[in-house]
């Protein structure tokens, strides 16, 4: 929403002109109103604003609110009003909100619902977060086998208001087993007397409710689908995942991957609203772990204390060399991790990726060896230049290999490849860097010059 | 696609049973066939396979192929066949393919096209990559103001085969100015005699062709749209961006952001197919730049050579401290960069984010100071422990602040916040870390003990 719209709404709210407020709200998108409420959240203000909207808009706005604000509002609302709101929400959002209410409120709501609604809600709320079942909706359109196009269209018209989309209609038998799908496009271009069975598509892409939601999202994105049906192991139709939910899932998963690649754990409900303690918790474990992991680098440097004392000039190049290994490794790891996540790179591609990275890293290593050689020219003699240039080449090579291989290795052991985060790769590359640098230095310098 | 499907297709192709091949291809999704061709790419094999498909499927499969394979095929195809393929492709894909052909082929194709098609193609191909104009399609459905629902439905039925979607229809006047939008859902639930003007939505969300494509994608995702109309400055309707293109844009942008956050430049056409030279070029600049940036760390360490020689134990803790500043900074920067990219964090939020990060980083700093203190207990005396614990606290604090502020600062100067990549933050944090560590060490140790 533009800042102007925000400010305009703030003005209208402050003026207290109820009619103007109603008109303004009716003309606004639900996502924008929800953003306004989220940004200026205060329970009673939010409830007063909601009362100025139609029932449908109330439900839509409520569905867009941040989870903790939904929870706050639900707690302060009269049960009757909450039940009304519930009825107008889409079935997947309803299940999400239901799952976060306390038991007392859940019971009170249940008592106000019809049996079919209740069963539907319990079914949807029973799936663990992250699974297809938790993002699917039961607001799909379905028609029985054998009806004509005319009948199908008539039924769709009748049921349209309760459905999330009618652009895909699922064709089912008496047991609700999925037999095919027909798009509204095909329905309106077919002849009214055609039988559904003859125009429906039988090869339907489906997902199951206990699949990871990210998999469903990738299928929807890959095949450009508006929605995908969810069927259980007996091919019974249990729900549908729509493209807009898939977009949200992809965004959420990408956020998790990016955070993980900087050793930040999962933050439920978004970073902006997270409490300092939540953020602390999501970051502290890896940070402390990495402190301990760096003991190896420390021990490596300490081991070469005598060499360092004899050749003080080596210290100058230490950060340049160590950082380069880490940076090259982080580049390689990021390319592979993202490639695996988008399905561009397969698990079996590692030999090809490794071969290509070897080529690239030799070229990078040579370029960087020349760079550090040029820098070295102003700081040290030819023997030190030889040591740092050679070390740079080796460190870049080793850093790259760690960066390419670590994601595949983690994947092999069932870990998320994104755990091969830049900091982890950097830490491992650092230790190797220290050993390579001082190893090469001891070998070359101790033979050519006797330390004084 | 499952590995089974892949292998099955390979079998069928090898058997050379043409009828079986045709049936198999007809039953497969275009995206899957394209993947098969991409994975086993060979020009003549691909052309032979394409010949076994219907014209529509050929166009769809071609549209899914990787850009370099499209180019390769187009170069080897007869112009007549390419022109036929062109006619069946969606207008945005057609423009993409056209843009990468050589001038001779472009001319040959142009001569085989009707004037309106030609104008359309030239218009779409004229937009720079990354702008809305380059992803929009002219395959939208439109109807004039004033028609009845019945007429609208009749027209949609007639034109459906050429349209990318008919679920959104744009209502235009004689000059093709956009006045409203009507969904197919609303059309089929309305009465046939209703006039479009009365049922259309007038408050239409629109984008302009020279907006960044990522902005259009974020609007589509935020408002859960199937498509968004593109209008020029005179409100003339020039195209439409569909949800599936938006998904591709989001994925591509996220890939770019992730790459940039590890100092990898933009790689056109995907990482997997990129030549080693392309990958080298996308990585070398930042790496070399960072080598030079690390000179400051090196100079810092060199400056404190005497302190280090007097207190060799300090060396052991060097990597632990330096890495911690970089890691904390990378965490903070990643959270902010992703927050800005998804619209969760606004540019004006920086004071709030800074305040929260201060709280979090004090807590993280204390935890890590205790960790390094415990490690120090086994390696050094109380004075050194005091130095390293105090340094850790300061380094973590400074690292976090750099991580939070850098993205906002870059954004302020019109740079992409993702340029505040982990390696850049790490490099800056490293230099500060060296100065803080040895600064504190000199201050505390040189006063308490006289180096021997």
TrEMBL record, chains A, B:
Residues 136-199, 200-257 form the CBS domain. It is a multi-pass membrane protein. GO terms for molecular function: magnesium ion transmembrane transporter activity; metal ion binding. It is found in: Cell membrane; Membrane. Pfam families: CBS, MgtE, MgtE_N. The chain crosses the membrane at residues 284-304, 310-337, 358-378, 384-410, 422-445. Its main location: membrane. SUPFAM superfamilies: CBS-domain pair, MgtE membrane domain-like, MgtE N-terminal domain-like. GO terms for cellular component: plasma membrane. SMART domains: CBS, MgtE_N. It comes from the Bacteria. Keywords: CBS domain, Cell membrane, Magnesium, Membrane, Metal-binding, Transmembrane, Transmembrane helix, Transport. Belongs to the SLC41A transporter family. Acts as a magnesium transporter. NCBIfam families: mgtE. PANTHER family: MAGNESIUM TRANSPORTER MGTE. This is Magnesium transporter MgtE.
